[in-house]
Automatic annotation (TrEMBL):
Pfam families recorded: 4HBT_2
InterPro entries found in the cross-reference section: HotDog_dom_sf (IPR029069), THEM6_lcsJ_thioesterase (IPR051490)
Region feature Disordered, mapped onto this chain: 174-218
Organism, as annotated: Lentinula raphanica
CDD domains the record matches: 4HBT
Family: Belongs to the lcsJ thioesterase family.
Protein name: Uncharacterized protein
Amino acid sequence: MELLAHLTKWLLAIILLLNIRAFPTVWHFRIFRPLIYIWTSHLVLKVKSIFLSKSAKEEAFERWIDALTPVGATPFQSTVFRSWASFDESDYNFHLSNSSYAKALDAARFKLACQLLPKFLIAGGVIPLAGTHFQFVREIPILAKYEVRVTLEAWDEKWIYIVCRFVSKRQVKNKHSPRSKRDGTEPNSPTFFHAPISSSGVSMASTPVEGTKPMSPTDMDKLASRLLATEEPDGATLHTITVSQMCFKMGRITVPPAVVFAVNGLCVPPPSVSLDGITSSDNLAREPYSLANPPPHWDKVKAITSKLHGGSIRKLQTFLKGGWKEVPEGERWWEEAMGGALELRRKENLEALDILRKGMEGARKIN
């Protein structure tokens, strides 16, 4: 009996260890790790500045927040979230379970938000999820390492569209999978729609819906071709592609994406592309925008966000909650910051990705 009790204890300990990533607060830590880093560095800054004068503290805070802000970058940025298919996140087929993809997406998208939009998050902004489209290409085996490559691909007056690619560096061949082919392709890969979540954060539906309704097969084929035709630049194996539809909120107020991007220093680069697709040779020699060489609209941002220039975080909050509407049409600096080549690429990407939004909205009308 004593031996049995001892073995039982070891068995329970092993089970708990294998499921440690499902413990309380572990998910929260994985999601908010980038924000925890920002909070921690801010706390360290406060401790270091405790004996400084008020003006010196403001200067230190300015340097700290500017170092976090991606001044001069474009919104079409990417980041990589790395993870692995643990026991608690895998299903009875010994593959990463469907629900675990959504779990990984939470952390991956938040990592991109912290890198691209620190001023927006520090001001108290949130980025709610309206819906996610999943297209499963290949399974991810249990214990396999994978990456989620996250890119902000398009936006309109309200929504942003984030594309995530689940990839692995080495293809794992599964001889027992009836769908596997010698060329590595998957016939008739299923398409799943995850319906928008409610205000409580609970999914409103989880039933797979065929991509042919309400979207036409032609539109679906075009979209799939656009998303899946390009191979990963490093030859990595593609497992799943997702497209998430999100928006920016300050309280109950929806903030246009262009405003949020420009406030965080994102902009069209100096070597701008003209409407006819020709790049000016004069612009090629110009130095890229950065904190040392800020874009033209950066002075406008400083006047709102920086105490050294008459602004503050509170003024930024007021601006994001609707203050941008008071800026006359011809003086909206964020439109200029998001113009040129950025606008061309935004429209091109939006034309493809907006098909998903229309499809999900149409699905809600089906009785």
